[in-house]
Each structure stands twice: as C-alpha cells, then as structure tokens.
Amino acid sequence: MNGSMIIAAVGMRASQQALEVAAHNIANADTVGFKRREASFEDVLAQVYEQPPGFRLPGRLTPLGLPYGWGANVHQLALDFRPGPVEETGRELDFALEGDGLFEVSVAAQPQPLWTRAGAFEWAVDPDDPQRKVLTTPDGAYVLAEGGERISVPAASGLRVDAEGRLYEVMPDGTENEFGRLSVVRVVRPDLLVNVGDNRFTLAEGAAEADAVDRANVWTADGGVPIRVRQRALEQSNVRPADEMVDMLAAQRAFQLQARAFATAEQMLGLAVSMRG
Amino acid sequence: MLRGLYTAAAGMLAEQRRHQIVTNNVANLNTPGFKQSNAVLRSFPEMLIHAVGGNAVPAARPIGRLNTAVIAEENLHVWAQGDLEETGRPLDFALVSDIPVDGVRFGAYGIGVDETGARVFQPQAFFAVRNADGELRLTRNGRFVAGTGGRLTTPEGFEVLGRDGRPIVLPPGADVSQWRVTPDGRFVDASGAPVTGPDGVELALGLYVAEDPHALVREGDGVFRWEGDAALLRLLDGPEPGVEVRQGYLERSNVDAAQAMVELVAALRAFEANQKVVQAYDRSLEKAVNEVGRV
C-alpha cells in the first residue's frame, strides 16, 4: 500500500507541474514575442523485487525479478521556437523578425548575453548625451547594434530599419544616413536557451554561445530560411490556446485517476490496519 | 498453525504488488513511449497433502496437491502501439512498429498464434541510446534534444546512437528544422541529400528489433535493458518492413485508463476478501487457543 501511495503522489505532482506549464503558457497567450514552453513526462527509475532461482517456473516469460516503477516526473523542455503570427501595427518602433532570429539587448546589471523576440521598442534619453536618444525595450534594456553598441540617434530624427537589419537615421527633412546594423543572432539550438523573465532569453548553464546561436550566418540563406526584419509589425505569442486547453484537460484527468489510485491504496492500508480489532 | 492463514496473507501481498504496478501505469498515463505493464499472479508453491489417521492403509494416504500461496510472479509489458501525437518539433520521433512474421497474424497487443497453435510474440522496434556507463539501452520515447557540442540526447542525458553504434553528433551550425527523417531513420536535408556528421558518416537513427520483447527489463527514465540472447536483438541497417520512423510525432503512452481503474478496484476488493479470510482464521484460532480445553 505504501508503495502505491508514493507512486500515486509522485504521479499527481507530475500532473500538477504539467498543469502549471500549460497555465503559464495560457497566461502569456497575448504577450508579444512569447515562446511557449512544453512539459514532457518520463517514468522514474525502476527497482526490482529480487526473486530466488526457484521462481523460474514453467510458462514464465520474463527474466527473474519483479520490476516496478515509482511513477513519472516532468522534464521541461526549453522552448517551442515556432513563429507566432505577425501583426502589422504601423508603429515606427515595432519590429518583427522573420526566421529563427533574436534581437540582442543588454541590461547594465547583467553581464550575460540577452536576447529577445519581442520587438516593441521605445526611445529613451541617451545617458551619455541628452541631445540624443537611444533605442530600448519597454523596461529599459538597450537594444544593441552589431559591435555591441547602443543604437543612438539625434533627438529629432526618426529610425528606419531595412529588411536586412541596416539602421538609417531619418532627418526631419527626409534624408537618411546609414549608421550601422541591428545585432540579430540566428538560433541554432533552442534547447540551449533559457527564459530569464521579462521576455528575454540567455544561455543555459554550461552552454557555449557558439553552440546555441550563430552570429555570422544571419542575413544570408545558408542552411535555412534567411532572417528578415519587418518594421511596423509585431510577432504575437506562439501559444495556441486550444492546444493548451487539451494539455490541461489531459493533465487534469491524469491527476484525477492518480488520486483515485491513491484512494484505493489508502483503503487497503485501512483494511490492513483494522484487521485485528 | 492453520495452513490457510499464510495463504491469505500471501494473497494480500500479491494484490498489494498488483495494485502498485497498476498505480505506476496510471502515473505514466501521459508519458511518451510508455508501455503498460500487467502483474501476473501465480499460485505457488504446491504441497502434496496426505490424509493421516483413521483406518486408512497405508497410514498416510495422499489426497492431492494444494497451493499454499499466491505470488506476483512477473510484470509483463503490453506491447500495443501507442497513439501518435503530432508535436511539430523537428527532433521528436515516433516509431510505428508492426513487424510481420510469416504465418502469424498478430492482434493489437502484439500476441499471435502460429500454425502449430503456439503463442508467438511480435518483435518490437526501438530507438538506441547509451547511458552514462556506455551501455546500450532501448527506448520508444523519441523526444530528443540537441545539447552542447551538437550531441543528440534524451532529456535525461542518454546519448542517442546512430546506425553505426556511435552517438549522433549534429554538424555545428546546422539548422535542424530544415532536415527530414526518412521512414528508416536517415537524416536528409531539404534537397533530399543525406546529411553527414562531422566525421563524414551519414546520420541515421540507430534502430534495434527485439525478437523476444519479454527479455526487456524496464529501468525507468524511459529506457529498457536487454537481458536476452544477444542473437535475438538486431540492429537494422536499412528499411525494415513494419518499422517506420515519423518525425514531428511522439508515441503516447499505451496505458488503458479504464482497465487500470477496474484493476485498482479489483485489487482492492481481493485484498479485502483476503483480509476477511485472515480475520476468520483469527477467530478460529482464538477459539482454539482460549476456549478449547478450558476448565
């Protein structure tokens, strides 16, 4: 009975975690640039009730020993990197990436590389020169150009970014100056990226940047779909609420069945305990 | 003591083991590639019973055989094919395994009967992985991830083996989403040309067929250990009838929830019945001990 109770409890915990992953995805169904996470189950390390050689009886099919498992665990996979739908917004500082690219941003307090898919940017006053402004994310992270520099333009000018990431400052009289290129990396191994909150990703612990992302082969088509930037558009969340609801239902029903298994195990324990008086 | 007391206790233990195995099935209702297991109970050991006393000649006359206990003998896996679930992930693979054998028609559970009436179990196909000690393990859970150094592994870190028996290493910088996998497990790029690894070997998933699926022992973490004759486990070196690899799909658990519920209740009630038998013996013994011969 005790073994059953432990197995049922482990199974319930796994079902609950799967439910939490689905709930987190649904909560972010409207978050710009959000990439959904997936939970994946695996059965827990099994043990064997040893059996003496006398148990090898005629008609037996399996090797000696009675193996039994201890339930299931949830492993969270990194990210589902399929693209979300792109919506035209008409806003100058909204950018969407086509292909497996990520914008590069930096936050003063965090030295590790940070990338994001959410291209809804804003202007902030340049901390080095109040006559200029810099491109930032809504919570203040600086968007980087190739070379790791912030993107800074005079306060009065606009910004145009072409399909291959080249940056142009647009003067009030309409003339344009090309002054750099947006820093975009191509994602090669999404399993090596982790979500650090605020819609940003970084390298998983122990992963090398060269394994996870590619800086060289971004705008060309070698090895896949070329990455393009679309201005005045935003990529929506890639969560599909119908799929998440199905996952939630499956987790809920599994939880229910496991609770039922627990209840019968508990009844058996009660019978054993009350056997004498 | 009365013989039946220990038999009833053995019955309780056997039903408890059966319940435990069914609970493990229920816990793995959503585990990809999981194969349901059924506990098999066996009545064992046998004793030859003699009638003693009375006017019988000889003095002890054999009556017959009596089983004095029941045990949970073994844990048989059910090799029914799990449903395929589309995930769209380029490194998710499902194996469809329906290997034909001459002269035998198999049912949904992989059991068939040949011309002589003997029971035949259908061979089953598996992906090949390697554990941290370098030992071969087999799995039906095709959810793989590309880790550091481009090695293809399961989420627990078991390295996926290729057709050459060595771990699969993806070429650096390669965009896996553009690759396709043929039904016999070879990787090809968007133009149909085979993909080669860093050492020039064509990348192909290592697939094994186990002729006797009952020689597999489940270890957990999604893998099985082969404990049978080495000759009965063969590595596929090309397309095999009845074995198909599907990319972007996962094979769901083949646990039957309704059957599991029924077995849980059956185990509970059998446990209860055995408990009542123990209580009946207890009352008899109480009379024997306390009341017989009381003055």
Automatic annotation (TrEMBL), chain A:
It comes from the Bacteria. Residues 8-35 form the Flagellar basal body rod protein N-terminal domain. Keywords: Bacterial flagellum. One of its GO terms (cellular component) is bacterial-type flagellum basal body. InterPro entries: Flag_bb_rod_N, Flagellar_FlgE/F/G, Flg_bb/hook_C_dom, FlgE/F/G-like. It is found in: Bacterial flagellum basal body. One of its GO terms (biological process) is bacterial-type flagellum-dependent swarming motility. SUPFAM superfamilies: Flagellar hook protein flgE. Residues 230-273 form the Flagellar basal-body/hook protein C-terminal domain. Belongs to the flagella basal body rod proteins family. This is Uncharacterized protein. It comes from Candidatus Reconcilbacillus cellulovorans.
From TrEMBL, chain B:
GO terms for biological process: bacterial-type flagellum-dependent swarming motility. Keywords: Cell projection, Cilium, Flagellum. Residues 246-290 form the Flagellar basal-body/hook protein C-terminal domain. GO terms for cellular component: bacterial-type flagellum. Residues 5-35 form the Flagellar basal body rod protein N-terminal domain. Residues 124-186 form the Flagellar hook protein FlgE/F/G-like D1 domain. Coiled coil: none annotated. Belongs to the flagella basal body rod proteins family. This is Flagellar basal body rod protein.
